[in-house]
């Protein structure tokens, strides 16, 4: 009998060595593991059932602690590291005991043989046992002892639909295997002997007795120190069934839906089993809690959802990803991913527009922009508060998020240029919509996602260099793209950091510990979306609030609703952060500018202030906000150089407003010096009457179609903006004189049906025409 066994074993070993088993009996493929998304530190963020509806989380080698290794080997297979997959001595002893009927019947299965049975379950017969032995030899020929041990711990049953030591550790103790105590580790080695009768949570009393029995046995064998055994025996058994890890459900679903990559060609779960995300577990948990509790407080206001994205500026790694306030809230569509949803960005694109304009030399922070009612070819933007300020500096326009100056700026930059830059920054919807986009783009008239906006603000935080956000640890680092200069990025950052935080002065006593942040808000048309995005040296954080159904809410504004959550997040992540603030780059310098216009001072600019500028790029034209005019001694008429008398005149400075600003001041009744009319005795056409000083027709809109109500005798309004020296304008309809009026006085006509030409001429002979179409109902 002994001789025959030795011959059989030798033959089996020979077949294994020469690969015969591989050709005749290919290794079975292990059952599929549960898709798992891991945090940056390797802990499980989110897990899903495997395709065969099991909780089978892959355990990496680092999860198999020395304690677990020693306990398992001592309990299941003392000679595991010495035999070739089968233990001949144990087999002979078991055969003799079973034949003589003495003691408990046993199969003398090694850990390797148990792995073979787990991979390929068979009936417990002599033939089945021989196949297990063959498979065990085959496994030993392919894998190391550690890999075989890993396979065993990944497949061993723990009752119900739980398989594998990592699944059991997380679902019954709420900890990964390497965090378990000695008592908990021994518990997990005991359950597989009787997964039904010793199932944790259901049979804890029987499991406790079995655990303590094995602890005493291992202590007697000297596997663990006596003191450790005594402490483990006193530890209560607190095993209970827990929910699977479910942090970051939106990102987990996003990553798992991509082809799930396990170690190709291997049946062992490698160290990188699962998708390793960049999320920081503590940051993700904090962001989810803050978002969920904050949205609950907003429910009475009709605001039901939020999304939050937190990015590490240095690495572009996403540290927190909150797609909705509550993934399980089906009533409010909680499974929608608000980070990828295309929404109107409101005013959040303005900082980037001004950065582009700074790089083109069009403006500097102190440069004055018009903030007056303006008709941009039929598009009449309004500020959020419905008010106009006449003229404002760029920094004020950005701080107060004024709409009209931003549209003026986009008109100068060019819609195509701006959308091209956004496309380079990863704005996919803008890239598709570009041919149809107009000046309303800067006020939210395009589509953008929170992901895209956070990436754009992270660009400003990284000196104007754009790189895509990173979701996984193995994502390749792309080469940075310089979207805007470091100088313009710094200037925008400096302006946005001047905004007053919403938690001050309430938190004034703690302000020294509060993080400094540059931030911007946005509110979409109809108050459907509220945005607040901020950044400092460490983080860029984006917040969106609204309703996934698209319903607006009266209270839904970026400043009032989204910003408090933004600063809750910054205070939680960066409180007492002593990190250095952004420093001015080398390519930036100071200069004196006129305090009225923000331009390089001219001869008539007594009041000057310091302003940043980009040498070699910023506009260097001299300021002409005041114009020198020759007037008569009594101030009633002005002279041009042609009709200037030899004496009896004086030089006077008058404000040189644009026609739009002048019309706004007149309409608002704001006092301003008015240039006297030109000398009527001068018959020559003045050489300084530039064509661009002709009246600008504000109403009607060029090339527009007007439908008037015939029953109400509805009329068409005529209105213009003229230069400062204009006293009277003359209106014409289809080249027929209508009437004369003051330059700011509205005129009403009742036109006929069909094409209509409206002309406006000023008292200097300058003329403007527009064409419209009139219909009546």
Automatic annotation (TrEMBL):
Q: Which residues form a coiled coil?
A: none
For whether the record's keyword set contains Disulfide bond, the answer is: no
> What are the GO cellular component annotations?
outer membrane-bounded periplasmic space
Ranges where the Penicillin-binding C-terminal domain occurs: 689-772
Q: Give me the reactions it catalyses.
A: [GlcNAc-(1->4)-Mur2Ac(oyl-L-Ala-gamma-D-Glu-L-Lys-D-Ala-D-Ala)](n)-di-trans,octa-cis-undecaprenyl diphosphate + beta-D-GlcNAc-(1->4)-Mur2Ac(oyl-L-Ala-gamma-D-Glu-L-Lys-D-Ala-D-Ala)-di-trans,octa-cis-undecaprenyl diphosphate = [GlcNAc-(1->4)-Mur2Ac(oyl-L-Ala-gamma-D-Glu-L-Lys-D-Ala-D-Ala)](n+1)-di-trans,octa-cis-undecaprenyl diphosphate + di-trans,octa-cis-undecaprenyl diphosphate + H(+)
Instruction: Tell me a Gene Ontology molecular-function term this record carries.
Output: peptidoglycan glycosyltransferase activity
Please name the GO terms of the biological process aspect recorded for this protein, alphabetically: peptidoglycan biosynthetic process; proteolysis
Limits of the Glycosyl transferase family domain: 45-216
| Xref: InterPro entries | Beta-lactam/transpept-like (IPR012338), Glyco_trans_51 (IPR001264), Glycosyltr_51/Transpeptidase (IPR050396), Lysozyme-like_dom_sf (IPR023346), PBP_1c (IPR011815), PBP_C (IPR009647), PBP_transglycosylase (IPR036950), PCN-bd_Tpept (IPR001460)
Q: What is this protein called?
A: peptidoglycan glycosyltransferase
